[in-house]
Amino acid sequence: MQPLSSITAPPKNNDQPQQQVTSPCVDKDPRLQPLLQQGRIWQAGDHQQHSASSAETLSSGYPLLDQQLIGDGWQTGNLVELLYDRNGSGELRLLLPTLAKLSQQPRWILWVNPPHIPYAPALQAAGVDTSKILMVHSQSHQDQLWTLEQALKSGGCSAVLGWLGEVQDKSIRRLQVAASDSGALGFVFRPQQYRQNSSSAPYRICLHPTNKGVDITLIKRKNGWAMPTLQLALGEDQLLHRQPKTDSQFQASNLAKPQQPDSQSPHLRLVR
């Protein structure tokens, strides 16, 4: 077991909240130069060039999705909210290429209150270094939010994944600020019913599984407009149970713990 304090790192200086500025004279004001360099101001007239140069961009692993993201990928230091009707809608498969890349960094990938125990062999088969994964099971909603915020701002995590239900937007805003401070990527999983709720997450994605993959709708993206639905083939057959998949029923992902785990299989670390 490993204490949560072990993932922490020296905190970085706090930045000011992001502002939207559209004045053509913004780049001429020397007082705004630090904010421009930190990526804290969005210049609507030049948002694509600004986004590409102000933050590290990480490819999603899916070219069609990258084309809809300013800078051709996820901008680190941001929160991504994934909304879907039920578990196994492709939400984890969508993130596997990103998690595989992040697991090559000397930082942790923290999972907070996943609905199922992740299946380590399936993660490894997707290229994820499971030795970098930590899991936390909090006892209350408040503890869960606290854990997510502390992990995001610690500097010790490259990514933090959290499964949330109903939550106030001010809590989402705190998570976004924490991610921005450390440069981590945060992924929040929520039911589709919260799609109409306001959210401070710079990225919001709705997922609908289909027979050919997953329909993805970017209802919100950083420094850009919402985008129409696109269909991605996520290669999910590699992660499904052996039962055949039918038109009317989608089987659970093998990312969940199998009924009879192999004693030789790699294990994930649980933080208490």
Essential attributes:
23% helix; Rossmann fold; alpha/beta; 13 strands; 7 helices; nine-stranded mixed beta sheet; globular; 272 residues; two-stranded parallel ribbon
How would you describe what is shown here?
There is one protein chain. The chain has 272 residues and is of the alpha/beta class. It is globular. Helix 6 runs parallel beside helix 7. It has seven helices and 13 strands. The chain has a single domain (58-271), classed as Rossmann fold (3-Layer(aba) Sandwich), CATH 3.40.50. A nine-stranded mixed beta sheet has the order 12-11-10-5-9-8-6-7-13, sandwiched between helices. The N and C termini lie close together (7 Å). Strand 8 (157-163), helix 7 (169-182) and strand 9 form a beta-alpha-beta unit.
